[in-house]
Write a structure and sequence with these properties.
Helices cover 4% and strands 26% of the residues. The protein is mainly β. It has two domains: 121 residues, Beta Complex (Beta-clip-like), CATH 2.170.270.10; 37 residues, no CATH class. The protein is globular, with a radius of gyration of 16 Å. The chain starts with 29 loop residues before the first strand and ends in a 23-residue tail after the last strand. It binds zinc ion. The site of zinc ion has 7 residues, from loops.
């Protein structure tokens, strides 16, 4: 049995109590594997209740100017893992190996984003069963016009 300090969540999630993640240890219950939507996806291996904070979207905090520069396939530091936090704050996850960056877009997602300052969490919109792929709506501007293959009955056809 490993040593554990009193400051940690009593649900054995090994996360400090002051962290919004302490509600669950679900970081460990997500695995990355090939997705039918796009590339790799994040799949849960445990039952998740609605409203659970599942993963924090971790990475480098960058400003809008940097985000625009990196959002270019010709850029030396090109990244397709940039998430917008607010008007001038973005998180670039290209250098971190964390399941949150692999959560795909769906037009009928089972998660949404929950923002807390410059922290962003992926939160369950409903109960999610083991084996389901996690998705949220990227809500890209229409101008980006990326074709969507999420497979949802009401897919709007673009990401
Ligand atoms: Zn779609």
């Amino acid at each position: 049995m490993s040593a554990r300090t009193a400051a940690l969540c009593e649900n054995s999630c090994d996360t400090p109590l002051e962290s919004p993640m302490h509600k669950s240890s679900k970081e460990a219950a997500v695995e990355v594997r090939d997705s039918s939507i796009h590339g790799k996806g994040a799949f849960v291996s445990d039952f998740l209740e609605s409203d659970t904070l599942i993963l924090e979207y971790t990475g480098e905090l960058i400003d809008r100017k940097t985000a625009v520069e990196r959002d270019n396939p010709d850029a030396p530091d090109y990244s397709c893992y940039i998430l917008q936090v607010d008007d001038d704050t973005y998180i670039d996850a290209r250098l971190v190996e964390h399941p949150a960056k692999y959560v795909n877009h769906s037009c009928e997602p089972n998660c949404n984003l929950s923002r807390d300052g410059t922290k962003v969490f992926i939160r369950a919109l409903r109960a999610i069963i083991p084996g389901e792929e996690l998705t949220y709506d990227y809500e890209y501007a229409a101008s980006e016009n990326l074709r969507c293959r999420c497979g949802a009955p009401r897919c709007r056809g673009r990401v």
